[in-house]
Write a structure and sequence with these properties.
By secondary structure, the chain is mainly α. The protein is built from 18 helices and no strands. It is about 75% helix and about 0% strand.
Length: about 475
C-alpha cells in the first residue's frame, strides 16, 4: 500500500505521517552530518578540531534533556503544539548554526537543535501510534523506518559533497526550507490534539535527574574513548550511572512520575526495549567503525566512504518492504527479530575479515546483509513493541523507547571506539592498521548476538493484534 493510501485511511493521518517522518529525517540526518564538516568548521572558526567535540556533544546533551519530557509535554499541551514548536525551534537553531561566527555561538545553537530534536522523534512517534490502529502498525513502521535508513547515507554522501564544494554553512541552511515547509504544512493540515483535561503537574525532580543522568552518560561516553578514559569522562560516566539509579528510585516513589516506568512491566514492551538497546548499539557502533575503517585503513575520501555505505541503506529499504508486506504477519516478531539480529552479527563478523588488499566484494555485501537484517529488526520491533499497551500510553511509551535507543546508540559507539583505541594501543599499530577495526567489529557482533538471544523471549501471542490480516 502506498504512503498516501495508508495515510488517508483516517482523517489527518497523511499530515501526521508526512510531518512526523520529515521531522525524524531532519533530526537523524543532522545528528550525523556535522561530523563530516568538523575539519572545515575548525578551519573557518580558527578552533582546534578537538575543541569542536562540543559541537557534537551539545546536540546530544540537548536531546537528552528534553526527550524524557516529551510524554509529559504532549499530555500537557497536546502533540500538535509540541511538534510544531519543536520543528520551529529546530529550524531557527539551524539558521543560527549557519550564521555562527564563533565556536561558542555554534555550540549554543547546536544545543538548541538538540533540545528540539529530543522532542520531535518521540512526540511524532507517539502521535503515529495513536492514528494507526494496531492491525496497521506494520505500515506505520515501514514508513517511519525509511528516515532511519536514508539519513545516515545522505549525511555522509551529501554532507561530504556539500562541504567539499561550498563549505560547512550550507549543511545547516538546507534544514531551513525543509523545516519551514514542515511547520507551514503542519500548521494548516495537522489535526488538533487537545491537551489532557486534567494534566499532571510536572515532576521537577524527575526532570532534573533524567536530564542530568542522560547528559552525563552521553557526554562521558562521547569523550571517554578519545581521552583514553581519563578522570573526567570516567567521573561523568559513573556520576551519570549513579544518577540514573537515583532517578529510577525517585520515579517509583513519585506521586505523578515523569517517566512511566511501570510500562517496563509489560513483557512485550520490556523485551523490545532490551533488544533495541543491543540493536542500536551494535548497528550504530558498526556503522561508526566502518566509516572510519574505509577512510583510515582502506583510504577512501569522505564522499567515497559515504557511497561505500549505500548498500547498507539499500538493504534496510528492502528489509523494510519484505517485513512489512510479507514476513511479519506470516513469521511473527520473535523469529524475525532473532533472525535479523543474527544477521547483523554475521555481517559484522564478515566485515571483520576485510583488508585493504583483499577481495572487494565483502564490504558491500556485508553492509547489504547488515542493512537487510536491520530492516527485519526495525519493522518487527517498531510494530510489536507497543502492541499490548493502551493507546493512551503512546506518548510516554514512545519517550521511554526513544531514550533506550539513544542510550544504546551512544553506548555502542563508545564501547566500540574504546575497543578500537585500546587494541591499537596494545598492539602499538597506526590508525591505518585493520586489526583494531576488526576487533571492534567482532565486539559489535557480540552485541548483536546478545540481542538475538534476547529476541527469543518475545511473546508472539502478545503481538497478535498487529498480525491481523
Amino acid at each position: 500500500m502506498s504512503l498516501t493510501r495508508a495515510a488517508n485511511a483516517s482523517p489527518g493521518r497523511l499530515a501526521v505521517t508526512s510531518i512526523a517522518s520529515a521531522g525524524m529525517f531532519l533530526v537523524m540526518m543532522d545528528s550525523s552530518i556535522v561530523n563530516v564538516a568538523l575539519p572545515a568548521i575548525a578551519r573557518d572558526l580558527r578552533t582546534p578540531p578537538a575543541a569542536l567535540t562540543l559541537v557534537v556533544l551539545a546536540y546530544l546533551v540537548g536531546a537528552a534533556a528534553t526527550m524524557p519530557l516529551s510524554g509529559w509535554l504532549a499530555s500537557r499541551f497536546g502533540a500538535r503544539r509540541v511538534l510544531l514548536a519543536a520543528l520551529t525551534l529546530f529550524t531557527l537553531a539551524s539558521l543560527a548554526c549557519a550564521l555562527s561566527l564563533r565556536p561558542e555561538q555554534l555550540i549554543t545553537a547546536r544545543a538548541c537543535q538538540g533540545l528540539a530534536g529530543g522532542l520531535i522523534t518521540p512526540v511524532g512517534m507517539g502521535w503515529l501510534l495513536r492514528v494507526y490502529p494496531k492491525d496497521q502498525r506494520t505500515r506505520m513502521a515501514a514508513i517511519v523506518s525509511v528516515p532511519a535508513a536514508l539519513a545516515p547515507v545522505v549525511a555522509l554522501v551529501a554532507g561530504g559533497a556539500i562541504v567539499q564544494a561550498w563549505g560547512w554553512v550550507p549543511i545547516f541552511l538546507i534544514n531551513v526550507p525543509i523545516g519551514a515547509a514542515a511547520v507551514a504544512l503542519g500548521g494548516c493540515a495537522l489535526p488538533p490534539t487537545p491537551a489532557a483535561e486534567a494534566p499532571p503537574a510536572l515532576d521537577r525532580a524527575g526532570a532534573l535527574l533524567s536530564a542530568a543522568s542522560l547528559g552525563l552518560l552521553v557526554t562521558g561516553a562521547g569523550t571517554g574513548p578519545t581521552q583514553h578514559w581519563s578522570l573526567g569522562p570516567t567521573v561523568m560516566l559513573v556520576a551519570g550511572a549513579a544518577l540514573l539509579v537515583l532517578l529510577v528510585w525517585q520515579q517509583r516513589r513519585a506521586r505523578m512520575p515523569l517517566l512511566h516506568l511501570e510500562l517496563l512491566g509489560n513483557r512485550l514492551f520490556s523485551s523490545a526495549a532490551l533488544i533495541v538497546l543491543c540493536a542500536a548499539g551494535g548497528l550504530q557502533g558498526m556503522l561508526f567503525i566502518t566509516a572510519l575503517f574505509v577512510q583510515e585503513s582502506i583510504g577512501l575520501a569522505p564522499v567515497q566512504a559515504g557511497l561505500a555505505i549505500v548498500p547498507q541503506a539499500i538493504g534496510v529499504l528492502l528489509g523494510i518492504q519484505l517485513t512489512s508486506r510479507v514476513l511479519y504477519r506470516r513469521v511473527g516478531p520473535r523469529r524475525l527479530t532473532a533472525t535479523g539480529m543474527a544477521g547483523i552479527a554475521a555481517s559484522a563478523c564478515a566485515l571483520a575479515t576485510v583488508v585493504p588488499t583483499g577481495p572487494t566484494g565483502i564490504l558491500p555485501s556485508g553492509l547489504f546483509v547488515a542493512g537487510l537484517s536491520f530492516g527485519l529488526v526495525q519493522v518487527s520491533l517498531q510494530t510489536s513493541a507497543f502492541a499490548s499497551l493502551a493507546v493512551s500510553e503512546s506518548a510516554h511509551a514512545s519517550a521511554l523507547f526513544s531514550m533506550v535507543r539513544q542510550v544504546g546508540s551512544a553506548a555502542g559507539v563508545a564501547v566500540l571506539a574504546t575497543v578500537l583505541s585500546a587494541y591499537a594501543d596494545t598492539l602499538g599499530v597506526s590508525g591505518s592498521s585493520p586489526a583494531p577495526y576488526h576487533a571492534a567489529l567482532v565486539t559489535a557482533a557480540i552485541l548483536a548476538g546478545v540481542g538475538a538471544a534476547l529476541a527469543l523471549r518475545i511473546p508472539d501471542a502478545d503481538a497478535a493484534a498487529t498480525r491481523a490480516p
